[in-house]
C-alpha cells in the first residue's frame, strides 16, 4: 500500500558520487521558538524523574543498597538457574564450551595450541632459571595455571604461564627472602599434603615418610628457592583472588598504555641483563637487588669480563643469529608467512638442536659448558607452601602485592588488546579471579607466580587461535614433556636458554622508540613513559611501578587542579557559545560575561577556578577593592566550607585583555556593614518578548526605571557554563556561595547554566539557596544570557484592566 509520502530528488550539485542522499543540505535552516527556561521550569514542564528533595549520604547508601537487594531478590530465575549463573560467573568455560563451533574453530585452535605449546617448553625452562628456580618449575608453571585459566579466563588469546618480567620479579623475592636450608626441610618439601598437615607446630615432619618428590636431585639452594617461590605464588594468588572478589578490576584505568609500555620496556633491560652470565659464561657475576641494581650489575660485569667462557659465547651467538633469522626473516616476512601460514617454532628448533649437539659432543664434560642438567620426570605431589616465609618476612606481602598487580596489568592489557581486535569483551574482575586461583593451586605443585606472556599471546593470536581450547592443547604438550621427555632436555646448554630469553625481549626493547612518537603527540603522556621507564631502569622494578602509578595519578590531579577555564562568546546568528580564544568570530556583550569550567569543582581546584573566573569576567580589580574595604566576614555560615578560596593562586594562563568592570559604589549602600548583604531587586513581573540579534537586544517593552537607586539592577551578569562540571564537593559549593556573595557586593549577578542534577542536588543539600533560586539556574547558556540582557534595566510590571500583574511568556528566537 502506498504511504502517500513523496521524496524530492536532491539537486545534482548536492548528489554524492555513490548515489546516496546527503543527510544534511547546506541550505538547511533551524528555527526554534520557545520560552526562556529556568531549570525549575524545565524540570516541572518536562517531567524530572526524581523531583523530590535530594538524598543525604545515608539516604543515598540505603537507596543503592535497596536497588541491589531488589535486583538480587526479585530475579525471575529459579534456584537451579541462580546456581548455574553463579557457577558460570566463576567458570565461564561451562557457558561457552557447549556452544563451541567444532567444525570452524577446532583445527585453527589445535594448530595454535601445538605452536604455543612447543614454544612454552623452552621458555618455561628459561624463565624458571631466570627466576632462580630449577628448570622443571617452569614446566609446572606452564601447565597448572594454564589449565585453570582455560576454565576461568575471559580472554581468548592470552597464553598463560611463565613470563620474563614476572620471573625477574620472582627472582628478587627468592633472592631477598631465601635462607640456608637443612636437609630436614628438604624432606618436608617432598612430603605430601596429609603428612605435612599432621605435623606439629614446627611444621617439620617428625617421623618423615618417604619423600614422593625426588629431592635428591635438588641441592639445598634449589630447595630453598622452591620454598620461597611457592609461598610467593600462594600469596600472589591470594592478593589477586581477594582483589577480584572485591571487584578491584576497575583499578586498570590507572594503568595507562604509556605506563605499561614504559614499565615493560625498562623491565626488558633488566631481563636482558640477567642473562649476561649464561650468554658470556662469566664467573663471579652475582645477583644484585634494590636501587641501582642495573648499574651495579654492569659495573661488576665489566670487572669480570676477562672470565668470559668462549664456548658459551659461541653457542649464544649461534643461537641468537638463528633465532633472529627465523623470527624476523621468516616469521615476520608476509610473503613467506602466506605460504607456510604457521610461524616456525624457533625456540623449539634451538632446544632440539642444542640438546642433540650438546649430548653428541659432550659439551659439559669436554668444554665445561653449563647445561640444564636436572629435569625430573613426573608431576610433583601436592605440598603445602611454607607460610613461615611470610611470618618471618612480613615485607614479602608488599613485594607479592606489586607482583600481583603487575601480572594482572600485563594480562588485562593484552586481553583488552585482543578483545578489541576480535570484537568481544573481557572482565577484569574475572581475570583477577582466574589468575588468583591458578597461582594458588599451582603453589601446591611447585609453580612460581604466573601471568600472560606477550610473545606467546601474540603467536597464539597470529597462529589463528580463537578460544581457550588453545590453552588446553598447549597444557597437554607441556604435560607430555613433564611426564616423559624431561630427561631429553638435560644436555641443553644454558647459553641456548640465555639467547632465547634475550631475543624474546627484543620486541619489548623496541618500545623505547615510543618516546619519539609520544613527544610529537602529548607531553604529559611522554613524561609518564619517561618517568616509569627511568624509575624502573635506574631503581628497581617494584619501586619503579610504584613511582610510575603515583606519577600517572599526579598528572591527572594536576590537570584537574588547573583545568581549562575559558571565556565564551556567541557565534553570530546562532545560540552557540564557544571559547573566544579558539573562535575568532565569537563575541561577548559587555553586560554579560560568560565563563565555562571544564572540570569538576572540588577542594583542589576551587581557588584556581575562582582566580580564573574573576580574571575572565573582568572582576579582578573590583574584587581587590572590595577586599580592601571589608574587614571581616559577617556571615560565617556562608563561608563555612570556603577556606580553600582564601588561597592566592597566580593565573599564568595566556588570555586577551579583558575590560575591567568598574564598580559603582552608589549601587551598594555603604551606611553599615550589612549593606554588603543588600540584594538587588529582581524582576518578578512580566518578561518581555524579544529577539536577540548579533549586536543588539530588541525588546517590545522600552519603558525604563524611574532612576531610583533601590530599583536599579546590576549592569553586569556573570554566567558560569557548568556543562562540563560533573560534580562539586562541599568545598566547591563553598566556592560558588562565596563567589556569588562577593559578586553581589559589587553589584554583579551570578547565574549558572547547564548544571547537572548531581550539582543541583549538592547545592540544595548545602543550602545554597541563592544559587539554587529559580532565577539563578538556567537550562542553557543562551537562556541565561537572554534573561540577563532583559534584566539590565528595570522593567515595569504589566498590568491588566483589573490592576493585576500579567505574566507573559518570554520567547527566544534563534535563527541558524
Describe the secondary structure blueprint for this structure:
Layout: E1 31-35, H1 39-45, H2 57-73, H3 79-90, H4 93-96, H5 102-130, H6 135-152, E2 160-161, H7 164-177, H8 183-190, H9 193-197, H10 220-245, H11 257-274, H12 276-280, H13 293-303, H14 310-331, H15 334-340, H16 346-361, H17 363-366, H18 388-392, H19 396-422, H20 428-443, E3 451-452, H21 454-462, H22 469-485, H23 494-504, H24 506-509, H25 514-521, H26 523-539, H27 541-561, E4 565-570, E5 577-579, E6 592-597, H28 606-617, H29 620-629, E7 690-692, E8 697-699, E9 716-721, H30 730-745, E10 748-753, H31 757-765, E11 777-778, H32 781-790, E12 811-815
In short:
With 816 residues, the chain is of the alpha/beta class. Helices cover 51% and strands 6% of the residues.
Which ranges are low-confidence, i.e. pLDDT below 50, for 5 or more consecutive residues? 1-15, 181-214, 665-691, 693-714, 794-816
State the helical fraction: 40-55%
In terms of structural class, how would the helical and strand content be classed?
alpha/beta
Shape: elongated
Specify the biggest β-sheet. Answer: 6 strands, mixed
Give the tally of β-strands: 12
Name the average pLDDT.
77
Question: Gap between N and C termini, in Å?
Answer: 38 Å
Q: Return Rg in Å.
A: 36 Å
Enumerate the strands of the largest sheet in spatial order, edge to edge or round the barrel.
5-4-6-9-10-11
Strand content: 5-15%
Tally of separate helices: 32
Report on the structure:
The protein is of the alpha/beta class and about 800 residues long. It is built from 32 helices and twelve strands. The longest helix is centred in the first third of the chain and has 29 residues, at about 100-130. The radius of gyration is 36 Å and the shape is elongated. Mean pLDDT is about 75; it is low at about 1-15, about 180-215, about 665-690, about 695-715 and about 795-815.
Amino acid at each position: 500500500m502506498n504511504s502517500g509520502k513523496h521524496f524530492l530528488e536532491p539537486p545534482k550539485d548536492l548528489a554524492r558520487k555513490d548515489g546516496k542522499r546527503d543527510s544534511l543540505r547546506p541550505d538547511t535552516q533551524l528555527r526554534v521558538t520557545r520560552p526562556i527556561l529556568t531549570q525549575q521550569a524545565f524540570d516541572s514542564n518536562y517531567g524530572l524523574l526524581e523531583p523530590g528533595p535530594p538524598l543525604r549520604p545515608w539516604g543515598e547508601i540505603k537507596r543503592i543498597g535497596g536497588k541491589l537487594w531488589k535486583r538480587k531478590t526479585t530475579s525471575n530465575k529459579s534456584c537451579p538457574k541462580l546456581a548455574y549463573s553463579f557457577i558460570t560467573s566463576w567458570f565461564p568455560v561451562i557457558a561457552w564450551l557447549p556452544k563451541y563451533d567444532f567444525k570452524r574453530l577446532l583445527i585453527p585452535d589445535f594448530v595454535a595450541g601445538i605452536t604455543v605449546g612447543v614454544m612454552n617448553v623452552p621458555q618455561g625452562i628459561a624463565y624458571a632459571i631466570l627466576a632462580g628456580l630449577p628448570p622443571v618449575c617452569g614446566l609446572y608453571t606452564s601447565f597448572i595455571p594454564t589449565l585453570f585459566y582455560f576454565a576461568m579466563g575471559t580472554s581468548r588469546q592470552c597464553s598463560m604461564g611463565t613470563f620474563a618480567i614476572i620471573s625477574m620479579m620472582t627472582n628478587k623475592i627468592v633472592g631477598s627472602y631465601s635462607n640456608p636450608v637443612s636437609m630436614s626441610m628438604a624432606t618436608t618439601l617432598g612430603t605430601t599434603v596429609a603428612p605435612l598437615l599432621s605435623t606439629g607446630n614446627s611444621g617439620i615432619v617428625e617421623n618423615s615418610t618417604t619423600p614422593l618428590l625426588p629431592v635428591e636431585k635438588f641441592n639445598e639452594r634449589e630447595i630453598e628457592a622452591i620454598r620461597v617461590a611457592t609461598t610467593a605464588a600462594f600469596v600472589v594468588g591470594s592478593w589477586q583472588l581477594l582483589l577480584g572478589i572485591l571487584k578491584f578490576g576497575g583499578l586498570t584505568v590507572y594503568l595507562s598504555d604509556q605506563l605499561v609500555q614504559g614499565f615493560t620496556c625498562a623491565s626488558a633491560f633488566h631481563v636482558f641483563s640477567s642473562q649476561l652470565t649464561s650468554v658470556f659464561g662469566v664467573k663471579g657475576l652475582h645477583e644484585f637487588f634494590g636501587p641501582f641494581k642495573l648499574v651495579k650489575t654492569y659495573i661488576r660485569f665489566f670487572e669480570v669480563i676477562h672470565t668470559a667462557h668462549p664456548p658459551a659465547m659461541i653457542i649464544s651467538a649461534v643461537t641468537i643469529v638463528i633465532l633472529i633469522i627465523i623470527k624476523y626473516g621468516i616469521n615476520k616476512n608476509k610473503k613467506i608467512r602466506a605460504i607456510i601460514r604457521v610461524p616456525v617454532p624457533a625456540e623449539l628448533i634451538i632446544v632440539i638442536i642444542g640438546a642433540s649437539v650438546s649430548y653428541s659432543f659432550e659439551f659439559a664434560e669436554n668444554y665445561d659448558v653449563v647445561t640444564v642438567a636436572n629435569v625430573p620426570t613426573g608431576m610433583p605431589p601436592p605440598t603445602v607452601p611454607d607460610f613461615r616465609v611470610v611470618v618471618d618476612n612480613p615485607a614479602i606481602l608488599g613485594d607479592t602485592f606489586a607482583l600481583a598487580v603487575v601480572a594482572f596489568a600485563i594480562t588485562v592489557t593484552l586481553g583488552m588488546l585482543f578483545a578489541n581486535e576480535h570484537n568481544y569483551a573481557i572482565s577484569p574482575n574475572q581475570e583477577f579471579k582466574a589468575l588468583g586461583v591458578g597461582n594458588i593451586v599451582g603453589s601446591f605443585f611447585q609453580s612460581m607466580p604466573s601471568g600472560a606472556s606477550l610473545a606467546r599471546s601474540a603467536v597464539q593470536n597470529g597462529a589463528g587461535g580463537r578460544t581457550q581450547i588453545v590453552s588446553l592443547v598447549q597444557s597437554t604438550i607441556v604435560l607430555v614433556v613433564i611426564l616423559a621427555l624431561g630427561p631429553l632436555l638435560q644436555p641443553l646448554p644454558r647459553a641456548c636458554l640465555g639467547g632465547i630469553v634475550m631475543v624474546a625481549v627484543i620486541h619489548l626493547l623496541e618500545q623505547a622508540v615510543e618516546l619519539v612518537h609520544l613527544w610529537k603527540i602529548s607531553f604529559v603522556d611522554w613524561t609518564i613513559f619517561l618517568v616509569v621507564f627511568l624509575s624502573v631502569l635506574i631503581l628497581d622494578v617494584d619501586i619503579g611501578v610504584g613511582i610510575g602509578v603515583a606519577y600517572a595519578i599526579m598528572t591527572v590531579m594536576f590537570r584537574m587542579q588547573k583545568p581549562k577555564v575559558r571565556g565564551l562568546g556567541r557565534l553570530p546568528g546562532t545560540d552557540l557559545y564557544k571559547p573566544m580564544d579558539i573562535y575568532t568570530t565569537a563575541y561577548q556583550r559587555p553586560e554579560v560575561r560568560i565563563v565555562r569550567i571544564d572540570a569538576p569543582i572540588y577542594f583542589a581546584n576551587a581557588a584556581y577556578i575562582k582566580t580564573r573566573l574573576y580574571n575572565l569576567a573582568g572582576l579582578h580589580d573590583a574584587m581587590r577593592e572590595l577586599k580592601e574595604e571589608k574587614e571581616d566576614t559577617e556571615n560565617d555560615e556562608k563561608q563555612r566550607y570556603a577556606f580553600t578560596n582564601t588561597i592566592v593562586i597566580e593565573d599564568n594562563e595566556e588570555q586577551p585583555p579583558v575590560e575591567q568592570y568598574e564598580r559603582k559604589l552608589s549601587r551598594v549602600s555603604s551606611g553599615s556593614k550589612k549593606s554588603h548583604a543588600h540584594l538587588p531587586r529582581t524582576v518578578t513581573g512580566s518578561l518581555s518578548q524579544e529577539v536577540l540579534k548579533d549586536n543588539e537586544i530588541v525588546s517590545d517593552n522600552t519603558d525604563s526605571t524611574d532612576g531610583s537607586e533601590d530599583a536599579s539592577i546590576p549592569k553586569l551578569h556573570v554566567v558560569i557554563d557548568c556543562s562540563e562540571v560533573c560534580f562539586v564537593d562541599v568545598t566547591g559549593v563553598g566556592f560558588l556561595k562565596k563567589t556569588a556573595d562577593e559578586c553581589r557586593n559589587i553589584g554583579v549577578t551570578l547565574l549558572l547554566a547547564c548544571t547537572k542534577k548531581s550539582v543541583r542536588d549538592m547545592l540544595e543539600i548545602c543550602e545554597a539557596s541563592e544559587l539554587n533560586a529559580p532565577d539563578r539556574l538556567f537550562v542553557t547558556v543562551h537562556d541565561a544570557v537572554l534573561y540577563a540582557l532583559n534584566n539590565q534595566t528595570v522593567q515595569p510590571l504589566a498590568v491588566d484592566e483589573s490592576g493585576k500583574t500579567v505574566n507573559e511568556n518570554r520567547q527566544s528566537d534563534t535563527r541558524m
